[in-house]
TrEMBL record:
Pfam families: Peptidase_S10 (PF00450)
SUPFAM superfamilies assigned to the protein according to its UniProt record, in alphabetical order: alpha/beta-Hydrolases
Keyword Signal part of the UniProt annotation: yes
Record bears the keyword Signal: yes
Protein origin, superkingdom: Eukaryota
Signal peptide: 1-26
GO MF assignments: acyltransferase activity, transferring groups other than amino-acyl groups; serine-type carboxypeptidase activity
Family: Belongs to the peptidase S10 family.
Protein name per Swiss-Prot or TrEMBL: Serine carboxypeptidase
Residue ranges that the Swiss-Prot or TrEMBL entry lists as coiled coil: none
Organism: Solanum tuberosum
Length: 414
């Protein structure tokens, strides 16, 4: 089995389009063209750095894409990819953004080995930017293109990274005041299940204190969110309940792709194995792609840099933040891939149940194109739970997930 791991070419791809060196704080710059994409981009893309922390020693990199519908009134969403340490570019290219790699289906005949050229980029017909504007943020420091100017600024944890995100938003809105009246949502997947509720509470508290700018927070949504210590204990009963292991093998699960149990086993973070561009090549083999100006400020770009982060996981449960946001009346959507064994949906159902909220719309299927897309339940605290897909649900169920978000943002039942 072959798995593609060519994400290091993105260094060179982005180096060609960034209009400023990465070691200098800079305002957002428009990006009109991308190598590998034919013609000008048919959407508005801006990239840039915003300094946060002491003396702006933490430089956070972002990608901002305007809604392709009505950016003056459509929701604005800050998206965090999980990890911690997975670049926002991952969510942009492989889950919900307007462009993605041109897939090549493999079969009996293997295509030629990858030669180092740019992969082809194509439009994603199911991008979430059809209905909302998105800020994709590299968080925490050390993720993607975000970097620290001092060794002390490299140190981060759940609470400090969340505070950095709030500082980022305050400065970003000061630079983009035309979006202050748009409905604003926090969002992300996987480990962002810890940070998104914390950041949402920081925004809510700041608004209550009268801090400027006022951020028009309406709620948040999360996909397959990491939420509490011990949720991995649900993997074995999940696997047993799904018929993956026998009673005799109840204590041993191997040989499966945990992010999507129906897929071939492959390094998580690679492209889906049926869509690839050639032989896998290591990051070190592709170092020629790292010729960014002032390159030393970020070192090697990685899709997921968890092992290289100076990051401490100090928040062991985000459930209290969910409870507090519920009391404050904020909406939430929790979607959970029912074929995901990394964060099993049964663990998500368990912590939602611990909030002790009454059911408003009981368990039922939700339908897309006359087919069952998953199952859903809505609670009295304005929380909607939905199932369907794998760990990164939009990657596996793009049509269904776009329909899900469209309905939820429009205050319609799934």
């Amino acid at each position: 089995m072959l798995c593609c791991n060519l994400f290091s070419v993105l260094l060179l791809l982005l180096a060609e389009v960034l209009h400023f060196p990465v070691c200098v704080e800079a305002a957002g710059s428009p990006v009109k063209f991308l190598p590998g994409f034919q013609g000008p981009l048919p959407f508005e893309l801006e990239t840039g750095y915003i300094g946060v922390g002491d003396s702006n020693d933490v430089q956070l990199f972002y990608y901002f894409i305007k809604s392709e519908s009505n950016p003056k009134s459509d929701p604005l969403i800050l998206w965090l990819t999980g990890g911690p340490g997975c670049s926002a570019l991952s969510g942009l290219l492989f889950e919900i953004g307007p462009i993605t790699f041109q897939p090549v289906e493999y079969g009996a005949f293997k295509p030629a080995e990858y030669n180092g050229s740019f992969p082809s980029l194509v439009l994603n017909p199911h991008t979430w930017t059809k209905i909302a504007s998105f800020i994709f943020l590299d968080l925490p420091v050390g993720t993607g293109f975000s970097y620290a100017r001092t060794s002390a600024a490299h140190q981060s944890d759940d609470l400090q990274a969340s505070d950095h995100a709030y500082q980022f938003l305050q400065k970003w809105f000061n630079d983009h005041p035309e979006f202050l009246r748009n409905p604003f949502y926090m969002a992300g997947d996987s480990y962002s299940g810890i940070s998104v509720p914390i950041i949402s509470q920081l925004i809510a508290n700041g608004n209550e204190k009268g801090l400027e700018p006022f951020i028009n927070l309406k709620g948040y949504f999360l996909g397959n969110p990491s939420t509490f210590q011990g949720e991995f204990n649900y993997r074995i009963p999940y696997a047993h309940g799904m018929g993956l292991i026998s009673d005799e093998l109840f204590e041993m699960v191997e040989g499966l792709e945990p992010g999507q149990i129906l897929e071939p086993n492959c390094e998580f973070g690679s492209l889906r194995p049926q869509k690839w561009f050639g032989e896998r090549r290591s990051l070190d083999e592709m170092l020629y792609a790292g010729r960014l100006r002032c390159r030393g400020s970020i070192g090697k770009w990685k899709r997921c840099a968890e092992d290289d982060l100076h990051f401490q996981k100090i928040v062991h449960s985000s459930i209290p933040y969910h409870a507090n946001l519920s009391v404050k009346g904020y909406r939430s959507l929790i979607y959970s891939g029912d074929h995901d064994m990394m964060i099993p949906y049964i663990s998500t159902k368990a912590w939602i149940r611990s909030l002790n909220c009454s059911i408003v719309d009981d368990w039922r299927p939700w339908i897309v194109d006359s087919q069952v897309a998953g199952y859903t339940r809505t609670y009295s605290n304005k929380m909607t739970f939905a199932t369907g897909g794998g760990h990164t649900a939009p990657e596996y169920k793009p049509v269904e997930c776009l329909a899900m978000l469209r309905r939820w943002l429009s205050y319609q039942p799934l």
